[in-house]
Design goal:
This protein is mostly helical. It has a single domain (37-329), classed as Orthogonal Bundle (Peroxidase, domain 1), CATH 1.10.520. Helices cover 36% and strands 4% of the residues. The chain has 13 helices and 8 strands. The chain has helices spanning 2-20, 41-52, 60-73, 91-94, 96-99, 109-121, 126-138, 172-181, 186-192, 223-228, 256-263, 268-272, 278-292; strands spanning 24-25, 32-33, 150-151, 200-201, 211-212, 233-234, 245-246, 303-304. The chain has a two-stranded antiparallel ribbon. The chain has a two-stranded antiparallel sheet with strand order 3-8. Strand 1 and strand 2 (32-33) form a beta hairpin. Helix 3 (60-73) packs across helix 7 and helix 9 (186-192) crosses helix 13. The longest helix is centred in the N-terminal third of the chain and has 19 residues, at 2-20.
Length: 357
Amino acid sequence: MAFQYCSIVVALFSVANAAFTNKIACADGIHFATHEACCALFPILEDIQENFFDGGQCGEEVHESLRLTFHDAIGFSLSQGPSGGGGADGSIAVFASVETAYHANGGIDDIVHAQAPYIATYNITPGDFIQFAGAVGVSNCPGAPRLEFLLGRPFPTAPAPDLMVPEPFDSVTKILARFADAGFSPAEVVALLASHTIAAADHVDPSIPGSPFDSTPAVFDSQFFIETMLNGTAFPGTAGNPGEVESPLPGEIRLQSDAALARDKRTACLWQANVNDQTHMAGSFKAAMAKLAVLGQDVSKMVDCSEVIPVPPKLTSRAHFPSGITRKDVNQICSLPFPTLPTDPGPVEPVAPVPKS
């Protein structure tokens, strides 16, 4: 019996070892990867987590790095072909003097300049670094999905053209049309806007820098979708544009485009579907980001290094109405039932700005 038991243990060890040895030992003697090319990412990961993301915090650099992944990638057009830009190619870093001057890219020069030393230090293309830093940064936010990362973007050859990035004051029709020209459906547009749950605005209103889009900017949760649906002070709009609906929460900023998408019949139910459904919100965001991150790229020539991206912390909070808010404060356009949510106890507290590091 002892011999039989020993044989079983050896067999199980062999199976486990065989599975493990499918990975290649990296030259550093510490890490393993399914593809040797991914080994080069581990020192970059450790450096940016410690020195760029403040030891793995979901803060300002994460917000800005995620924003940069979008602003670089969306410079892509199905209708314009090559003249529509190279997509997720790092052109916003290589041709920074051109692209950061575009109106829609206002303020993005800060994160471009902050990332530049890392791109210069490591053997990685600008397009790869931008998307890698964005995926790593998001992994620091509780509740976020573990984003995919494919390695192998070539150097860009030209800047993306102007007017490719949707702006906060664009109409829903204009926003959906721009995204459609880049290959995204309305559902994917709403999915990508989950990024605003860990975001803040510095330049939409320069008088209130660091204003977050929801009350929990360091957590990837559905509060953004809830709070954008709340009634607020309405400002008159123009033809084809419903105008701004200011957040009722002090210290929180609401983009006009977010308010409009939450209230437009084409997107209202897509928006509401994220309320109190963390699995749906995280899953749809991950899928849309995977598509965004390789816009304009030949995926067949890239290597999947998603295993290098850390696993994000689990979400421990639950969806809720902020203090003083109840179901009657929801401006609901979708005809589907709105989820039942608790209201935070206590007095209404101002939403704190996201501090600069």
